[in-house]
Amino acid sequence: LKPSHCHAFCVDSCLSPTREFLAFEMLRIIAAMVVSALADCPRGCPERCPAQEAVQTAWVRKNFDLAKFWGVYYELAYHDNTQPHTWPIQATCMRSVKSQHPGDAKNYKDLFSLNFGAGGGKNAVCDLEFNITDKPGVFLGHWSGSMRPDLHSVSNTVVDVGVAANGSYTWSLEFQCKDDPTGGIQFVAVNFYHRNPLVADSEFQEMMQRLRARGLGWAVDVDPGLTMVDQKKCVDHASYPPIDAPVHWCGQGLADASESMIV
Fold first, then answer.
1. Fewest CB within a 10 Å sphere: which of 132, 170, 218, 225?
2. How many other C-beta atoms lie within 10 A of the C-beta of residue 199?
3. Cβ of 66: how many Cβ atoms within 10 Å?
């Protein structure tokens, strides 16, 4: 990624790359402080996270194939307080690039990107990692960044997938959940991922029906509800980062601006 030109945070003139980064970090810190101070499910949720296998379809439990899971997915909608969706960031164009970890057969990497700002905007790229278990579609996610210490480890479950005629996966429903040690649920998230950035509403509604059929309607109904992702912005501006983009503004274990600034 290249140094910034003007974007939504500019007032009278362009920010330098370092000042741009610091502005982004300040906004992320404020957001993290707010969500970390509140339970994700004060009302409207089960007492504890459901067992991961219990929310999967029988087909996924029996047939899920990691080799068909790898590749590029665009997020159509989500309930996830780690993704900034309100002023001042209002991220869009979320994308997930999943691949086998090159150095560890028991892990996979997820280069998760988001875009913010006017026009083509600017991209942040995060390097998420997940442990692969011996249960199909059952993972444990890890985030070593300092922004959300409450989420250093969180379960991630493939609830259901869309299967094309050739057997490839066209979409994936993923569910994350973490219990609060003091009782209740600390964090819950649902991600609607599709191979295409723009899809017909009928296909999205099928995904929603499949999620609710697994008893997870509460995870999208609980406040603040479901957020629809604007992918058209990045389609129109061709502004997605490369699928092998370096980590930018959102890397694991990045301690300060000097370590995480790419110029």
1. 225
2. 18
3. 13
Q: Which residues have C-beta within 8 Å of that of residue 130, sequence separation ≥ 6? A: 107, 108, 109, 110, 139, 140, 141, 142, 156
Confidence of residue 167 (pLDDT cuts 50, 70, 90): very high
Q: What per-residue confidence (pLDDT) applies to 146?
A: 59
- What the block records as the tokens of 126 is 């995060």
Quote the CA–CA distance of 257 and 15 in Å, as a whole number.
15
Q: Which residues of 233-249 are buried (b: 16+ CB within 10 A; e: fewer)?
A: bbeeeebbbeeebebbb
Kindly report the pTM of this predicted structure. 0.82
Kindly report the length of the chain: 263
Q: Are 226 and 188 in contact (CB under 8 A)?
A: no
Confidence of residue 4 (pLDDT cuts 50, 70, 90): very low
* C-alpha to C-alpha distance for 197 and 137, rounded to whole angstroms: 23
Query: What mean pLDDT, rounded, does the chain reach?
Result: 82
Q: Is the pLDDT confidence value at 260 over 50?
A: no
Q: Which residues pair with 110 in a beta bridge?
A: 98, 128
